[in-house]
Amino acid sequence: GAAVKALLGAAASRRRALDLPRTDTDVFRFVNSEGDGLSGLTVDAFGDVLVCQISAVWLESRRAVVEAALREAYADLTGISDARVLWRRAEARLRQDGWDGEADELASGDRFAATEGGLAYEVDVFGQKTGFYCDQRDNRAFLGPLCAGKSVLDLYCYSGGFALNAAKHGATAALGVDSSATAVDLARRNAAANGLDACAFEEADVSAWLKASDARYDVVVCDPPKLAPSAKTLPRATRKYQKINALALGAVKRGGLLLTCTCSSAMTTSGNFLGVVHDAALDAGRQVTVLRTSGAAADHPIHPAFAEGAYLTAVLLHVH
């Protein structure tokens, strides 16, 4: 108990040093598993809600202690003493370790509000990850101002983060595409809640949509789901990344920008993502220049001995 309290106190101290939460942002990564010394525990904060992703059996046996310590550390950081703690289990991982408990109590439709960069979001805790991709916050903030007066295409848009930021910063049009009906519904609700009329969203398979469209955009974001969950699946995933990036490059106007991402630790740690993007450019007949390479937001700390913690790579390309 004392060790967990000390580690959570240190995690809170790191977020305080990053000025999190702040007036315009109450969604952030509060605990980043190995990066905060708490293997198997990931916690995203959404105002007065803490969503925990659980992937280690030790957390199940110490749930009451962990939840109490979480509330105490979060109260110390934010002044919120009665945070609601939601426990979302990675059941397949837990059962591999011998866990035989009951299934997750969370259900779709458990939604709450969050704010990032002054934009209001409706979060579905049963959606992807903990319900929101706060790891892309810094990348959204960087790209948003570059979209002023531009047309924007947000591929695998989920609840609309990149499209909403583009519209907030003056994009003339921001179109998001995602195969999930729930995600597209969330994105539309988020656009309406923020009064962003420049946003539109379509439910479609991204590859099929790109193959059927001949439209070109000033700025394209390509942020697919984890295609390589392990090193074993990397060769197949590499081919998928190459194909989707070739299609995405074909949707960029000459002189435009592509922000392409991988959230697969196996791809990032292989060091080959830029090579895959280069091959995709050859396939698409486009020339690309790397303007910026970045990772997850700073509230996703990495332990030096756990390189796999650096899972996200985002590459901003000038396409000509």
Task: Give an overview in words.
The longest helix has 17 residues, at 234-250. β7, α6 and β8 form a beta-alpha-beta unit. It is built from 11 helices and 13 strands. The protein is α/β, with parallel strands linked by helices and 320 residues long. Helix content is 35%, strand content 26%. A 7-stranded mixed beta sheet has the order 9-8-7-10-11-13-12, with helices on both faces. The protein has a 4-stranded mixed beta sheet with strand order 1-2-3-4. A two-stranded antiparallel sheet has the order 5-6. The protein is globular.
Helix content: 25-40%
Question: Helices and strands, in N-to-C order?
Answer: HEEEHHEHEEHEHEHEHEHEHHEE
Termini distance? 56 Å
Overall 3D form: globular
Number of H/I helices: 11
Q: How much of the sequence is in beta strands?
A: 25-35%
User: Structural class of the helices, strands and pairings?
Assistant: alpha/beta
Mean pLDDT: 94
Using DSSP, what is the number of strands?
13
Strand order of the largest sheet: 9-8-7-10-11-13-12
- Unreliably modeled segments: none
Largest sheet: 7 strands, mixed
- Radius of gyration, CA atoms, in whole angstroms: 20 Å
Give short descriptive properties of this protein.
320 residues; alpha/beta; 4-stranded mixed sheet; 26% strand
Summarize the structure in short:
With 320 residues, the chain is an alpha/beta fold. The chain has 11 helices and 13 strands. The chain starts with a helix and ends with a strand.
